[in-house]
């Protein structure tokens, strides 16, 4: 009898948590606009071809995988076999993808993608979730216009650095008031 109620409790926990993971099925920016051509970009990424995010523009892609997100900034390779597990994308800036024609171009682009991954990894190594959020927000605010960063949903940053979206919201609301507590 106890094991039966325990199983029901476990099922209830899963069923109430799982919809939060599916939040990305309808990703809307905070200004109310929806990513309209994201499905076209996702189709490109799943085509098997390797593309490079244009390094001459401030643009990039957030690639949503099953349980996390990755940032591919200027110069980074996207697509190919590497992003077949990508479920959704969010463009940042005026996205420009170039085709990697030669082996050398692809190698350089994969090295740059690895550098972007290492940057996010360094941020996620901070022990406090609030520190991770502040660091990722700082990085994005240094590179992209503040208005653009402000319009990005909390879930995006949460999936990039492994925190709850509520933590991102709290850090965004309290901002500088928290700086002294986490440094």
What does this protein look like?
The protein is of the alpha+beta class. The protein is built from eight helices and six strands, in the order ααββββββαααααα. The protein has helices spanning 2-21, 38-45, 103-124, 129-143, 146-151, 154-161, 165-174, 176-182; strands at residues 50-53, 60-64, 69-72, 77-79, 88-92, 97-99. The strands form two sheets. The protein has a three-stranded antiparallel β-sheet with strand order 4-1-6. Strands 3-2-5 form a three-stranded antiparallel β-sheet. β2 and β3 (69-72) form a beta hairpin. α4 (129-143) packs across α6. The radius of gyration is 18 Å and the shape is elongated. 27% of the residues are buried. The model is unreliable at 6-35 (pLDDT under 50).
Mean pLDDT: 83
The 3D shape can be described as: elongated
User: How large, in whole angstroms, is the Cα Rg?
Assistant: 18 Å
Q: What's the number of helices?
A: 8
Query: Major sheet: order of its strands?
Result: 4-1-6
Uncertain runs: 6-35
Summarize the structure.
By secondary structure, this protein is an alpha+beta fold. It has eight helices and six strands, in the order H-H-E-E-E-E-E-E-H-H-H-H-H-H.
Which key terms come to mind for this protein?
single chain; 183 residues; alpha+beta; three-stranded antiparallel beta sheet; 6 strands; 52% helix
């Amino acid at each position: 009898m106890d094991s039966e109620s325990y199983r029901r409790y476990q099922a209830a926990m899963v069923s109430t948590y799982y919809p939060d993971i599916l939040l990305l099925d309808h990703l809307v920016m905070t200004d109310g606009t929806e990513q309209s051509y994201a499905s076209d970009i996702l189709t490109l990424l799943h085509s098997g071809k390797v593309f490079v995010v244009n390094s001459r523009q401030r643009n990039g892609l957030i690639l949503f995988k099953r349980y996390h997100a990755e940032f591919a900034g200027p110069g980074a390779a996207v697509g190919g076999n590497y992003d077949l597990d990508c479920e959704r994308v969010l463009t940042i800036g005026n996205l420009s993808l170039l085709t990697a024609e030669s082996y050398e171009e692809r190698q350089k682009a994969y090295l740059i993608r690895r550098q972007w991954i290492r940057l996010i990894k360094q941020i996620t190594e901070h022990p406090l979730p609030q520190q991770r959020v502040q660091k990722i927000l700082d990085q994005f605010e240094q590179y992209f216009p503040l208005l653009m960063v402000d319009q990005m949903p909390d879930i995006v940053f949460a999936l990039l650095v492994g925190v709850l979206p509520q933590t991102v919201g709290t850090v965004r609301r309290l901002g500088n008031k928290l700086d002294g507590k986490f440094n």
